Structure formats: C-alpha cells, structure tokens
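User: Assemble these into one structure.

Assistant: Restating your components, then the assembled model:
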Amino acid sequence: MNEKRILLSGNEAVARGAYESGVKVAAAYPGTPSTEILENIRAYKGIYAEWSPNEKVALEMGMGAAFAGARALVAMKHVGVNVAADPLFTMAYTGLRGGLVLVTADDPEMHSSQNEQDSRNYAKFAKVPMLEPSDSQEAKDFTGLALELSERFDTPVMLRSTTRISHSKSIVLLKEPAEQTAEPKLVKDPLKFVMLPANARKRHPVVEKRMEDLSRFAETFPENRIEWGENKIGIITSGISYQYAKEVMPEASYLKLGMVYPLPQELIRSFASRVEKLFVVEDLDPFIEEQVRAMGIAITGKAAFPLCGELTPALVAKGLKGFSPLPVDEISRNLPARPPIMCPGCPHRGIFSILSKLKLYVTGDIGCYTLGFLPPLSAIDTCVCMGASIGNALGLDKALGEEALGKVVAVIGDSTFLHSGITGLLDVAYNKGAVTLIILDNHTTAMTGRQDHPGTGFTLKGEEAFQVDLVRLAKVLGVKHVKVVNPYQLAATERVIKREVKRPEPSVIISQAPCVLSRRERAVTGKPFLVNSEVCTGCRACLRLGCPAIMWVKENENEAGGKKRKGRALIDHFLCNGCTLCEQVCKFSAIKETNGQ
Amino acid sequence: MDNKTTNILIVGVGGQGIILASEIMADVFLEAGFDVKKSEVHGMAQRGGSVSTHVRFGPKVFSPLIKEGEVDIFMSFEELEALRYLHYLGPKSTIILNRQRLNPPAVSLGNEAYPEGAAEILSRRAGKFKGIPARDLALQVGDVRAVNIILLGALQPFLPISEKIWTENILSRFPAQAQKVNLEAFELGRSA
C-alpha cells in the first residue's frame, strides 16, 4: 500500500478523509473556519463538489445524495448549522441509505464569528451521534468513521471541529481510497422518507432506539479510550482540549472521547471510580460535565475552566494545577490595536463613507463590509446573522413608521443576499416596507477568501454557470425601484442614496464593482495617487475614508513652512490602488494621479 | 533541544508572507524527522490585521499552541507587532526582528503614536537578538515579497537542521524563474 506522511490542516484532512472513504457528493457554503474543506475536496477526482447558496440547501442536497445510497459530506461553520437545522432534525428521523457526515467547524474565541455557540448541543438536540477529532490524523480518520457509523446505524453523523483543529497542521498518514462503495440507485421507501405525521410517529421510536444502540456502541468504540497514568487525577476530554491537557499534565490518567454524543456511561463510571479527582476539560459549554453530573458523579469542569472564549494550554494549566497564566505585558497592553480593515481600493469604502457622512442608521450583515463598523467610517449599527439586515430594517420601519423614513438603510453583500437575503426582500416587497436595501455586489464571497456563488457565473469546480441577475431578481420579488450605482463615483452614488432612503416604498440600490482582490476583474487602475504637500491643508477629509494607504504626518510650525496646518496627508504608493476616492473628497485638489511610477 | 519541544512564534501583519514562512518551516521540521504542529488564525489575515502563527517541533508534540512564557524562537515581521507578544517570551528566547514599521489604522489617522524603541526593548529581553532590515534586503535581491525567505535564512543558524533541507523545500515552492531570487534571499538572511 502506498503510504505517505504529510502535514495537513484539519480541514485538508477532512477533505482527504472524504476522498479515502469514497464520498461521492460534497456541498458547503463558505464560512470560517470551515471553508477549506470544500476548497480541498474540489481537487479530488470522482467527487461532485459544490458551493451551495446556503447551508440548508447544502444539507438537503447531501441528504438527497445519501437517499440514493451515495456517501455525502456537508460542511459548514457553527452558525451554518442554525441555517441547516431544519433538515437536520428530520433527517435523524428518516435516516439515509448512503452515509452522510455533517462537518461543523466551531469558532471558540470568535476569531471570525458573531457568536461562539457550541455545536455539541445540536447532536443532543437533534438526536444524532457526534465525533470530535483532536488532530488532523483523527480529522481524516473520523470522517471515514462517521460515514461508517452513519451507514451502520442509519443516521446522519456530525463531526465537530474547532478553529484550532481546522486551522492547525499536524502529521497525517495518507492512504489510498478503499474499495468502491455500492453504486447509488433509486430505491423507493416512502414510509421511511415521507415524514407525514403518521410516518414520523413511527420513526420517532426508531430514533430513540437508535440512540440506545449508539450508547451501547460507545462503550466499546475504540476511539473512546482510556490512557492510564497516575490515579490521582483523571481527565475526561476530547478534541483540542485533549492536546492542551496532555501538554500540561502528561502524567494524569485520561478518558479521551472520540465520540462526544452519546456518551459511554459505563466507561465513564469505571474511569471515575479508579481516579481520586475527576476533571473534564472541554471548550465552551459544560456539555460532558452536565451529563456526568447527571450520572451522580462528582466532577470539576467549568468551576476551573472558563465558559467564554477558547481554552489554551495556559488556561488548562490554571484549571488543573492552579498556575496563573502570565499576565499580558504592560507595554503590550498599551499598543495601538491592529484590526482587519477594508483593503486599499475596496469598493465598499465609498458606500460607507457616504453612509457615515449622511449619519444614517445602517442595519448591517455578515461579510467584509461589517468592517464598516470600525472608525473612522463607523457606519454599521446592527449585525446579527446572515440576511438579518433586511428583516431588521423592515422591523425598524414598521415600529417607527414616518420617524424612520430617510434615516435607515440596510446593507448586504451579494453572496449573503443570495444566501438568505432574498426572503427578507420578499417580505419588504410583500408587506410594503419603506425600506432601502443596498446590495454591495463585489461579485464574490470576499470575507472567506473569494469563493464563487450563484451571482458570479462560476461554480466551485471553476465551470461556467448561469449568473443570477440581481436587478431582475429584485424586480421579480416586487421591488419597483432598483438602481445600479458605481461606488467609485461618490457624488452620483450619494445622490441616489439620499433620494432612495426617503422613498416611502421598497427600493434597492445595487453597488456594482468587483472585489479589489479579484483575479477576474479589475475596477481600479492600480496607479497610485500622490498628495501634493504644498497644496494639502491638513483638513483630514481623505483620512476619514479609513484607507490603509493614507496616513497622517504630524508637523510643527517649521515643517509646515508657514502653512496653517498641524500636519498633512501622505499616500503610501506601494499600498494605493488608485481608486480615486481620496481625490474626490479632497476640496483643495491636493491629490493627483501619478503615472504609475 | 534534544527531548524538548522547540517553540517558534511568528508574528506580523496580514499580507507579509507569514503563512508561507510557517508552511516552509513546518515542512522542513517534518523532513528533518520531527513531530510537528502548527496553528494560526487566518480568517482575517488578508485584511491587514495582526497575524500570529505557532510552530512547534520535537520528538512528540501535543498542543499546537505555545504557552505564554515558553517561546524559544520569536520571529517578528514588524516592530509594533513584536511588542504585542512580550508575555510569550521565555527567559532566553532568541529574537529575530524585521526592522520594518507598518502603521496600524489609529497611527495612520494620527490618533495614536507608533511605539518607539521596539528593538531596544526586545534585545534587552532576549537571550540572542538579531535585527534585520529584511525589506531593504528583499529590494536588494529584487523582490519585495522575499522578506519571509530572508527571515527564514536568518532563522536557519539557530536550528539543528541543515541548510540543504531548507533550500530544497524553498526551491520546491517557487516556479523556476523565482528560484534564484529566493535562494539569494535565503543566503542573504543567513549572513545578515
């Protein structure tokens, strides 16, 4: 057998696992930290892989593939499971024919998320088993195991990753794909797959029986293993927390859980009875802790480890040994922050500079443009979840009536609009909302690294596809007033925004310009601009754009050369993309294009 | 370094080539026969935010994250970012500092000052300290993107891994026309 050891991230390993275990269909909507799973599956021959418009559709199509008997993988970030929850819960009832693994990548610490919900609760809630790998080798192996369990127990299986699994690399032993699984085919089985109440009532006991079977299976599942060390301290743990605990307390005894739901109760009882003090080390919720307590076993968990944020080796050392983590140095604490920021030349900047100037109440959404929240633009007032901008704006309108007219605007990206904004806009049109929606159409899913979607004209595999026309889409939903603007033309765009927000009817403004990082299209020249230091009055109008290429240079009286200014603006010609916004906001014509040198 | 895990923390600003540097490092340690783990957060990296990558190697590595106070080698691509991680330094850390400043937004806007004296603060706390004008050196070899390879060159003398393993890995990652520049960059970093 051809075996090879390489370094893979958790996400790459899940993709490899799908390939090695004969997955035929894979689907996802991009979301950090899960995105690279499908980006890597894309390269494997023999797997149909797609970006779906959202996670619900991804799971439903994965389910369809499994109904046919094919193996399927569906991946999403933790909040994506909320979107896909509807099919998930009933899929536990129907079961499947081929194996299906739903990979959820949680984001403890919210490195790039709006909440840090713990997906393990979904396994319990939806009554499906869940595996949790602790490194890349397990991420690969557990993907295959999840598919086997899915077929053996006729249930979807969840695989939970976290940022530190998905985005960490460790050594993986590669294998070649196993013997082909059974060919998919159409088989009717309506009593199992048509969840009318009469059928579903028969399926619910099947689900409960299955959970009992899985609980029994968990007792001897080899990935729930005890590693005996000293008997003073016993630690129940899973996922990345296992690695942190092993790092700081290698001498302890471990019950390392590969399956975090359902739990192996007898194994836990026997482990607990043979150690003096029992800890559970787990990220986020006391998920294992509460179940162990319910068994009447004393255990230390969240009393010693934080509920909020991700665990680290230092926090685990604190919980297990009482060592306090080193405090952040005084010097480090007082440094200027360095948040992510819209790129130089970003098409969103023009829109947000106008919204900031007009002091509108902006209901925001999920994407790069959420960065419009940061100073100096400071032009986002709400951000909740994918698609919420539109419903939020409609609610403000219905609650405030005339009071809100001309003061509120919703903003959403093209990918987010197609993910879950369409129904919101339908509501606005249907219920006659006096809502103005700006669709920031940069022809990509920018925040997660520029993935394609139904509005880009290309699929995950890079094949050409039908490109949704957002203007026509808004119109058929019932919006009469649809305007397209070029966000690099500030004056014209401002006029349109001012007019549309006052309109007591549904209206949509589509801001069309490709992401400045796009490899396909380019809207800016790339020729840098220059500030004429003789002409600059130091008024700071250009700095209020929040462009990383523009900086303030302080001057004393001598340096100002008799000018009444405290400093001047300077453009970094390496960073400037020539978007022209600063030239447009400069009232003194101090900013000019260079010839690209 | 025999039985112990070696902890390398690499920090800087999104877009400086930190991820590639850490990829090369991790592969080199694997090639040299060690267990390796590496962790980073890259959801926001592209947009000029702070970036940090942990790389650990040794006979057996558990955690991909380094504990505060236990960094053996600290490599910073930027001066201010170096100061953000002082609590990660060990008592004898080797520090490699790229002498480059990139203004964060509050400094660009003139609302906050860029901190002075990063090199002095770091060299006082270091076991060994090496300050390198990697950006100038990169311009010297003719590719401003080579900052990361120069810094890898600077790292090489501090680790028990032959130059050959490094250069072979670097060669494997670049197309033919970019290989010479990057080998020069690596050499320049080694002798800096």
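Chain B touches chain A through 51 residues (CB under 8 Å).
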